[in-house]
Design brief:
heterodimer, A: about 120 residues, alpha/beta, Rossmann fold, 5-stranded parallel sheet, two-stranded antiparallel sheet, B: about 190 residues, alpha+beta, Aminopeptidase, 8-stranded mixed sheet, globular
């Protein structure tokens, strides 16, 4: 399957990255990792790129890691549509001190606008 | 919470627990703080184990006794404030304040057998009274937009919306004056 994994540097995005890379190695997915702008993230885009390349190398898969600038949600949807991706994978949100799950703004936009299936990794 | 902030004005004074009242179904309800009592904790586990899954909000209460116990472990800690509404020896509802940087996150649960009887209003007022008495300054919560009953209850109490951009509304309340405190940066979560 042709999979687009969008990550911006939040904890849940790294969890999504690891899980998607792991799955790609087993399922032979055609994976692209898009490093997007996330203003809520404390990790710089270059460090996120580095982290993604490491994950791909460690898994020994042939996946593209790409920097995607601009509005993260709409860019991901646009890339998925123009390049024929079948699935978008994103982090599944963060958990408050109370234990409440909150979905990030990127995931909200993608969920409501994508034509492809969307997977949120918990 | 996000950086939406809190109301400038301090909320009304709320009555600290214990408080007692008769609910709209003529049941005698008493609200008491939870103070580390094992028996009360077991009663809460039972309440949440029979909690209607349709009343879950953003993943809580979790399903299954094991995950309920883990969750309660985190929110019944010494650094949290909890009150329970009792009908005899059965919990009808539970409300909690969990620390988050310089503020507390609030959640409230009323068991389906005790809903629509006015217990939620008493329960949240007692929790905020408990917080006020313990010098809690700022409280925030999130609530699903479609949950109109909850949103109107929080507004009536004095909560103001701090973030309306997401699926869930985020609301804040100032419980005590924070003279001498740091200026509001809105703690991260």
């Amino acid at each position: 399957m042709k999979v687009l994994c969008g990550i911006g540097g939040s904890d849940d995005s790294f969890r999504a990255l690891d899980r998607t890379v792991e799955r790609a190695a087993v399922a032979n997915d055609d994976l692209t990792v898009a490093v997007v702008d996330n203003e809520d993230s404390s990790v710089a885009p270059d460090d996120v790129l580095e982290r993604a390349r490491e994950a791909v190398d460690e898994a020994g898969i042939d996946a593209e890691v790409r920097r995607v600038e601009g509005d993260p949600g709409s860019r991901l949807v646009e890339i998925a549509e123009t390049e024929g991706f079948e699935e978008i994978v994103l982090g599944g949100g963060h958990t408050s001190p109370m234990g409440k799950i909150t979905i990030g703004s990127i995931a909200e936009f993608v969920l409501l606008n994508a034509k492809t299936s969307v997977t949120l990794v918990r | 919470m996000s950086d939406g902030g809190y109301p400038d004005a301090v909320a009304d004074e709320f009555p600290p627990p214990p408080t007692a009242f008769t609910d709209r179904e003529d049941r005698e309800i008493e609200i008491r703080p939870y103070e580390g009592d094992d028996e009360a904790r077991e009663s809460l586990v039972e309440m949440y184990d029979t909690f209607d899954p349709a009343d879950r909000a953003q993943g809580i209460p979790p399903g299954g006794e094991k995950r309920i116990r883990e969750w309660l472990e985190a929110i019944l800690g010494d650094d949290c404030y909890n009150v329970i509404a009792w009908c005899g020896d059965e919990p009808a509802g539970h409300a909690t304040l969990v620390p988050d940087d310089d503020a507390y996150e609030l959640a409230i649960f009323v068991h389906q057998e005790y809903q629509r009887a006015g217990i939620g209003t008493h329960l949240i007022r007692a929790l905020l009274g408990h917080g006020q008495a313990n010098d809690v300054r700022k409280v925030w919560l999130t609530v699903e937009r479609w949950n109109r009953a909850a949103v109107s209850l929080y507004k009536k109490i004095g909560f103001e919306t701090s973030d309306a951009e997401s699926f869930e509304l985020e609301m804040g309340l100032r419980l005590n004056d924070d003279a001498g405190d740091e200026p509001d940066e809105g703690g991260g979560n």
